[in-house]
Amino acid sequence: MKLVVATKNQGKMREFKDLFEGTGFEIFGLDDLGISVDVEEDGKTFEENALKKAVEIMKICGEVTIADDSGICVEALGGAPGVYSSRYAGERATDMQNNLKLLKEMEGVKNRRAHFYCAMAIAYPDGRTHVFTGRLDGKIAHDMRGRGGFGYDVLFELPEYNNMTSAQISSCLKNKISHRARALAKLKEYLTAQK
Length: 195
Hints:
By secondary structure, the protein is an alpha/beta fold. It has helices at residues 10-20, 30-33, 46-61, 95-105, 171-177, 179-194; strands spanning 2-5, 26-29, 65-74, 113-123, 129-140, 156-158, 164-165. Strand 4 and strand 5 (129-140) form a beta hairpin. It is globular and about 50 Å long.
């Protein structure tokens, strides 16, 4: 079965392909299909953004489409950056710029609790939609560490893994415990039951 993932982010595509390996599903990204549409993420929640992306891309390609919206939510910042995670430091901000802004915001802050959150939507050509969610709890580090992952992984400490950041753990482990992996596990279970 063909599944289209509504992203151009190569880091996300690697995670999706790894997580679906050996399931019999063929995974295609927007670049694979030559789709260059940017769906505006103007929802107030991760769920709204994921659904909007999945439905709009499904209408373009006519295939079952998966879209996710995810980000980091920091307790001391009232849940920010939240849905603005990818553009926290500005509309075209790089991962480095976003991380530097978050570090600056967290200077002198004692409560460093945070979580990654993912809403994953699937849209079918017949109009059916479903949303699955996942969450990973951790805290914001005082400095960037690690070379793996992308986004805020270099700043996200995992207390149960010796305070290593998401960027320091193996991609194999990350693909088991991440917010996206947790949402995707629910989606995979759902898809497998549909087969």
